[in-house]
Structures are given as C-alpha cells and as structure tokens.
Design a protein that fits this description.
By secondary structure, the protein is an alpha/beta fold. The protein has 4 domains: about 100 residues, Rossmann fold (3-Layer(aba) Sandwich), CATH 3.40.50; about 70 residues; about 160 residues, Histidine kinase-like ATPase, C-terminal domain (Heat Shock Protein 90, 2-Layer Sandwich), CATH 3.30.565; about 120 residues, Rossmann fold (3-Layer(aba) Sandwich). It is built from 14 helices and 19 strands. Strand 6, helix 4 and strand 7 form a beta-alpha-beta unit.
C-alpha cells in the first residue's frame, strides 16, 4: 500500500465513533485512515446502549458503521444518530451492502458507503464528509444570523410606520414655534414660541432614537475597503459550495470612507448568500471594490444628485438571473423567491446603503447572472442645521404664487401662514382635486409644495394631472425620510426635490427659494 502520510496534513484531530463487531475489520478500517495521514481518536461499540452513551459523551465528528451485527444494525445506528443530530456524517463500511441497499441508505440520511473489499476510497470519503458537514454548519449559521437580523428589520419597519405618524404630529409644533418667535415685540409669545419649537425638536429626537434602537444605531467610523473585503472572506469561509468559485478583488487596498463596517458587512454577506443560492449547479461569485466618479447623469430623478468620488462595491454571479417581474418586485417587503425566505434581506441592504448616503444598481439577465452595485460617497455632505434668523432677506419671497397641497388641516394652516408671512402668495388646497380646480380657475403657479402621503387623491395622480395641465416648474415633495418616492410615479418633467418631514420653517423657505431660482420663476423687487 502506498505511503500517504505526507498528504492532507491540514485536517485536525477527529473523533470517530466506530460501530463494528469484528475487531479485525475495525483495525483494517483504521489502518486505511492511518495510511492517509488522518489523525484520529476512536471509540468502538457494537450494541445500542454503548452507541447512545458514546454519542452523548464522546461527541464524535463522524460515525463509521457496519451494516449488520448481532443484536444491533447500521440502520438502527443511523436512526439514533439522526434523532440526535443531522450534522454528524454517517458512513456505512460493510461487506454486504448491495446497490439497492446503498441507495436506500443514502435516502435514509447516510452520507456515503464503502465496501470492506475495496477500502481505498475510505480516507477521501471521510475527508469529504467532514468538509461538507463543516460547510453546511457554516452556511446554516450564516443564514440563521441573517434571518435573526431580518426579524429586527421587521421591527424597524413597524417603528418606521409609527415614526411617520409621530412626525406628522410634531410638524405643527416646529412650524408654530417658528411663527410665534416672529412676535419679538411680545416677549411672552416669543418665549412660548421657543418652548413649543424646542418641545417639537426634542420629540423628533426621541423618534430618531426609537428608530436607531430598532434598526441598530449607526456608529460612524473609518471603513477600510480592504478590511471590509477581508471580513467578508472570513465570514464566507466554509459557506461557499465546492462548485462555486469565489473571487474577491480589491482594486485600491488603501481606500477608506466614513460608514458603519458591521452594517456594510451584513449587506455584502446578504448579497453573496443570495448569489450562491442563485447558482445551484455552481458558477463564479465575484466581489469587486473600486473607486469611481459619478456625474449628475448617473442619478435617477428621485435620488439626490451628489456628484463626486464614490466607492463601488460589486457582487456579481453567473447564476440564473432574474426576470423583469422579479426585478420590479425585488424591494417589496416580504417578497421572496426562496423557500423559507423573509423577503426583507434586500430591503435591509437598500436601507443600509441609503443610510450611508449611497445608491444601489442592479443588472440581471435571465440565464446569465446578476450584478448588484453599491455606491457609497467618499465625502458626506454636511447638512445645514442653522436656525431661522428673523429678517433674513435672502429667504423672503416676492409674491410668487405657491400652490400648497396638504390633506391634514393643521399642517396646511401652519405651512400657509409661514409662507404668507415670508412674502409668498399661497393658494392652499386640502386635496389634489381641489388643487386642480384652482389651477383651472386661476392658472399655473410658480411652485407646487405637496405632501407625499395623500390618500384621497394621491400625490402621484396629482403630479400626473399637473403634467397634463402643462405644469413645468418645480415641485417640493414633503416625504418620510425612509421612504423615497418611486421615480416611475413622478412624471413631472420639471425639478422635483424632496423635503423630509417634519420640515423646519428655515428648511422650507430655503427650499422654496432654491426651487424658484432653479426653475427661473424667481421674482425680483421692482419687476
């Protein structure tokens, strides 16, 4: 027999539970493993009580069993093992196992079978069984962790809905507080305005804290692309099927950006697991990181156009690809094409990317594969958090016509008063149909400010009707921060900008001025 002692040194010491009533046969089997360089510790049993006791105390990595023994059998040993766990490989080593019995054994949960007359394949079968068991455990652990995270995503979705309602309640407090502070000649009203505004802001901070707790607070840190790739490679180690080739390519190892390492790691892991499941017959899983410059033409209508340098994280597979119908529903909550899937994984990815100020793209061809590209900005814009200054001339209007469409009466009144106080001619409508009736009677406005969550006549239908009326100026859409509008539902060809609710008076006035300037409808004193 050839000396195999120099091969396969990487396998650690393994525990073998051997079910055999012939000491000579047991020794011959172990000799085959020794010749292949496998380091092992063995327990030999030949009856059911000893098998059960050894299974609990010895905790074997693998079971090697004869088929038939006096008072005990391999079938019974396999049954007891599978009742105990499905993770431990079970290999029949028998002289009497026929082809039909071998097929039946595999169907019953055996990992493999070896004939005692031809034991040369035993060592390789043991190595393969142990490797596949380890891969299966790693894959199950990764998927269980992903499902656990996605359950928290369900909680985050519920918290997001609640936060939307709370934002609507807080919006009047912020606007009313700013309006009351304009009465500087009455100190009591000014103090009351400051109090109302501060209460509204503290309430908003509580909402954000609730969302952060439900979703997992984002901790800003410098994320090195090389470290992100190394962590992903470590997580996937043992989870990638043998038929799938994993290729991770980091173009610029020194590239780094501000973000959350754990969240992005979860996102990439999710995409990689999806890609592997899309390649049941094998293929290539490729993860590539690079630096790219994005121009304004890259961004979709509903995305904030932030040109500049981005890091691109690409996850591509050569799997089954996706049909057009699947691609359209890909980010719907609870939509899934996998058995036992939650339908929240990609939604979680999109939320993580959005929280980093980034965007996602998908390219998929049925039968050829899919590629998800994640773009994260290397430099994050700094938001303007300055407070409203009384008498700021740059924010004053010049009697421009603003059509305000908001269903909730309290918000409509406060928004109207704020814009009116700062020099705009406001036409308030509590529904899309009322707004269209006003346009028929009075003509097109210079600017439209609209709530994105109207139910009686939706914002999408209102925008479509505005387009049919020939409206080409700007639109300010008051939206939930975590629910950007769908570009396909926004047909207005003019400039559309979203404002996260609740909006402060200063943010509203600044957005109005910017929109009027961009649309060329800003009026100047003396016109």
């Amino acid at each position: 027999m050839p000396d195999k002692s120099n091969h396969h040194r990487s396998l650690p010491r393994i525990r073998i539970l051997q079910v055999e009533d012939s000491p000579l046969d047991a020794e011959l089997i172990l000799t085959e493993l020794q010749a292949d360089g496998i380091d092992y510790e063995v327990r030999l049993v030949d009856d059911e009580p000893a098998f059960v006791e050894t299974l609990d105390r010895f905790k074997p990595h693998i079971v090697l069993s004869d088929l038939s023994m006096p008072g005990f059998s391999g079938q019974r040993a396999l049954e007891l093992l599978r009742d105990h766990t499905v993770d431990i490989p079970f290999i029949y080593v028998s002289a009497t196992l026929g082809e039909e019995a071998a097929i039946a054994a595999l169907r019953e949960g055996a990992t493999d079978y070896i004939l005692k007359q031809n034991p040369a394949r035993l060592a390789s079968a043991v190595r393969r069984a142990l490797r596949e068991a380890e891969e299966q455990r790693a894959r199950a652990h990764a998927e269980a962790e992903l499902i656990r995270v996605q359950r928290f995503e369900s909680l985050a979705m519920l918290a997001g809905g609640l936060s939307h309602d709370l934002r609507n309640l807080l919006q009047p407090l912020l606007l009313a507080g700013d309006s009351l502070q304009d009465y500087q000649d009455d100190p009591r009203l000014a103090r009351l305005g400051a109090l109302v505004r501060d209460c509204g802001r503290r309430g908003l901070e509580m909402v954000q804290s609730m969302l952060s707790f439900a979703r997992g607070a984002r901790r800003a840190e410098q994320v090195k692309v090389q470290a992100l790739a190394d962590a992903l490679s470590l997580l996937l180690q043992g989870s990638v099927p043998r038929a799938v080739h994993l290729d991770i390519d980091v173009v610029d190892p020194e590239l780094s950006f501000e973000g959350n390492h754990t969240e992005l790691q979860q996102c990439l892991l999710n995409l990689c697991l999806n890609a592997m499941q899309a390649m049941p017959d094998g293929g290539i899983l490729r993860v590539v990181t690079s630096k790219v410059a994005l121009e304004s033409e890259f961004f979709l209508e509903h995305e904030e156009c932030l040109t500049g340098d981005y890091v691109r994280l690409s996850v591509a597979d050569t799997g089954q690809g996706m049909s057009e119908d699947v691609r359209k529903r890909l980010f719907e909550p609870f939509f899934t094409t996998k058995d036992g899937g939650t339908g929240l994984g990609l939604l979680s990815c999109r939320r993580i990317v959005a929280s980093h100020g980034g965007v996602m793209r998908l390219d998929s061809i049925p039968g050829e594969g899919s590629c998800f590209d994640i773009y994260i900005p290397l430099a994050r814009p700094v938001a303007d958090t300055s407070t409203l200054v009384d008498g700021d001339a740059s924010l004053h209007g010049n009697a421009e016509h603003v059509l305000l469409v908001v269903e909730e009466a309290g918000q409509l009144t406060l928004l109207t008063d704020s814009l009116d106080t700062w020099g705009y001619e406001v036409h308030a409508s509590q529904s899309g149909t009322a707004a269209l009736q006003w346009i028929e009677a009075c003509g097109l406005p210079d600017l439209v400010v609209m709530d994105g969550d109207m139910s009686l006549f939706s914002s999408e239908r209102t925008l479509a009707a505005l387009s049919q009326y020939g409206y080409r100026n700007g639109v300010l859409m008051l939206c939930r921060a975590d629910d950007p509008p769908d570009a396909d539902l926004l047909p207005v060809p003019g400039q559309l900008r979203r404002l996260d609710k609740p909006v402060s008076t200063r943010a509203l006035l600044q957005a109005v001025r910017d929109a009027l300037r961009a649309g060329g409808t800003e009026r100047f004193k003396g016109d």
